[in-house]
Write the structure tokens for this entry.
Amino acid sequence: MKSTRIKKKRQGRWLDRLLTAHGIAGYLFLYLPIVILVIFSFNTSKYAGAWRGFTLDWYKTLFANRSIGAALKNSLIVAGGSTLIATIFGTLAALAMERYDFRGKLAFDSVLYLPIIIPDIAMAVMLLLFFILAHLQLGLTTIVISHIAFNISFVAVVVRARLAFFDVTLEEAARDLYADEWQTFRRVTLPLIMPGILGGALLAFTLSIDDFVITFFTAGPGSTTLPLRIYSMVKLGVTPEINALSSMMLLFSMALVFLSIMLQKGGGSGIEIV
Amino acid sequence: MLPRSRRETTRLLFLISPSLFWLTLFFVLPLLLVFAISFGQRGTYGGVRWNLTLENYGRFLDPLYLRIFGRTIVIALTTTLICLLAGYPLAYFIATRPARWRNSLLLLLMIPFWTNFLIRTYAWLLILRDHGLINTLWTGVLHNFMLWAAAAVPLPLWDPLVSATASPLPLFGSNLAIIIGLVYGWLPDMVLPCYAAIERFDFSLVEAAQDLYANRRKTFLRVILPLTMPGIVAGSILVFIPSLGAYVTPDLLGGAKSVMIGNVIYSQFMSARDYPFGSAISLVLMAVMLIGTLLYFRLGTENEVN
Amino acid sequence: MSEYAVELNKITKHFGPVVAVDGISIFIHDGEFFSLLGPSGCGKTTTLRLIAGFELPTAGQVFIGGQLQGDTPPYRRPVNTVFQNYALFPHMSIYQNVAFGLEMKKTPKQETRPRVLDALEMVQLPGMEKRKPNQLSGGQQQRVALARALINRPKVLLLDEPLGALDLKLRQAMQLELKALQHRVGITFVYVTHDQEEALTMSDRIAVMSEGRVLQLGSPEEIYDRPANRFVADFIGETNFLGGTIRTSGPDEWVVMVDGVLPVHLPAGEGLRVDESVTVAIRPEKISIHVEPPDSRAVPGVVAEVVYTGTDTRYLVRLTERTMVTVRQQNIGVGPAVRFPAGVQVHLHWRPESARLLTA
């Protein structure tokens, strides 16, 4: 955006103030619920109504809660496994789409993008039916399978965006200097698209950890992930333990955001919004 | 198609096979399965009786389901509209700040978005329910204030206010709660595309318009708005589609009377075990979304959309 | 038959319906500085890429050092390329960039290091090894690209408009440097450019290309003084074109009637007959301008415009209703040298061999 100054008339200044007020209000709206969560996680009272006193009890209960620990472990296993596989598959697919033309490319492109457009619940339903009719036992495996299914697309999108900016003459230069296809990929292409791959992996990890609907439908007994645990806790009744858990997860999200910034700084200039 | 050596063909196959295999088996196949099942019937013990009937689709004509579908669409449209009215100015605000602030502002925008959706919806539960934040203030502080005011200044106008603040506001379990939850969840999805479009906008055009006697309102309507339309279209689609298929938000924040299509699908699969009917509903939902997305591509292909 | 450094035999390249290169045959000698010159889209870059192996010909053969290349990939050909945008690897240091080719050929470290430092010396960039490409200026990056290619001692060095991104003064300096470098190193250079002055300055031979074909191949003097056709005459330098028909065709001298009214005398040509349409081509600097006709062959005209360009004065002289010519006079004297103001009747003269007869 060019930094041209628009003549500020009296009317203009009023409008600008209104805009700024709206901006501030917007951010307040976005943060208010979260702030309330965090504040009341320290509240002695069970109800998010009145402040009764500062306490760390809920955090203590949280860390002592074994079922949450187990759910967290499951979430990490699922996220770790699905991210790893989805990143590899998705990166390979992105390379294929950006570098080659082939018959059926359009069809493959559609199949690759569909999981992104399709609503969670439709995908959850599809997968559940598939597992039931294939007589597959619902459990961690089915969750991982489902997560990989949608994460491939997200990774592919992110890596493709990165590849689009890639200077192909660099690969030609490498081949001109006696590097064969594999060496060119390993020494030139891969290092330069790595920020994109990591960005895609991070996105996939976040989506997997956060996922509720698809996981809900494809999970079996004993394969509870963190979002599923939270859901059952909320359904049972409000406990401030959930507030404490929420604050912890908020902290975790912020850490991930900072991590992604570090990655972006390494690869390009400034922050790119994924 | 360009000629390709054997070597290249092998490489291409290597690149697409994993994702092709996975997506065909765990996406295309399930999709076809849903399509096939939607023409079947519920078996006696919840299984599937394979058939070729349209009765599942016919059930949509039942006023019960039509009402739910209607409500879902209305909620989704309202959410989109609110997101637009709130999100576009917010995006405009961010885009017109000095460059060094913009990245931080965008970051601040994203942090709530990166928090778990369940948690964010739960937070609104805390705020909106009968013993939640708003109502505690309403029946507590505000009610007490009304009582005090009525005692201090005896006027009949206090009476309705006193009785109103005696009981909690029925926020929770209403369509309103769902809309608030959805707006909260998807607002960033509207702000980001609008921001991208506004940021790319050449503000010297505004000066040109003003040089040609256009006041601020006209400049906005005739210059800024049309040129940032791709962002608006993109944002609207990104909000409308998930809102249409919402499940968690109506489940946590809505009541029995605010059921959306997502909840119907859930109950068909989890309680009623009527897989064919549930499949039919999912397909109709997907069809509606597909039409929406196609509309977006048609509207968005004139301009470059990111 | 002696081995040519590069031989292209009826090379054709199609991109779908587009014919980029149309049956070209070129022989490039060992140690030659050979240029492919032409406007954008003429196929010169595609030809270069066919030699390098980035494209495979639709028809025809590419020979390097007498060896048929067939579908050999670039990393197995004894050629190296200097790219238009330099294509330096941004994530590697200058040292790693220059050493890359040697590393791919598994050259031992002890041999690599001195060769890299030597190569950087040769392009006058000593001490830059540890820097990254984005820390260098355009001119410096270009020299690194050169070093990175030359260090591999290729049979042929291919250069794709390497000086395009540099400013004028730097470009001119680099042209001379490249020429000197080529002499020193003795490698065959194949150079692609759209700048005819650049080609004329540096090349031993030039192939002028247009629409996938070679219109003329020869030394700079040949191309300039004896353009084979209208396109070459027009593309290289400036030319005046006079259209007319052959009036008389004597054994020593021919007369062409320009626009039906103006007789122009030329040395005898061949293969053409009376009444055939021809174009006479003369370069502006070959024409001298006089008040009185110096001999019977001088052509009369009226000065229409005078343009002062510092080094020269250019006169636009109207010869007939339809034909104007440009005359260039070097400003040898100092001060307002406008000897022929607009409107004055003058006579133009040139040496017979300066005029070329081209079929229309």
Q: What stands out?
A: Chain A has one domain: 57-265. The first helix of chain A runs from residue 10 to 41.
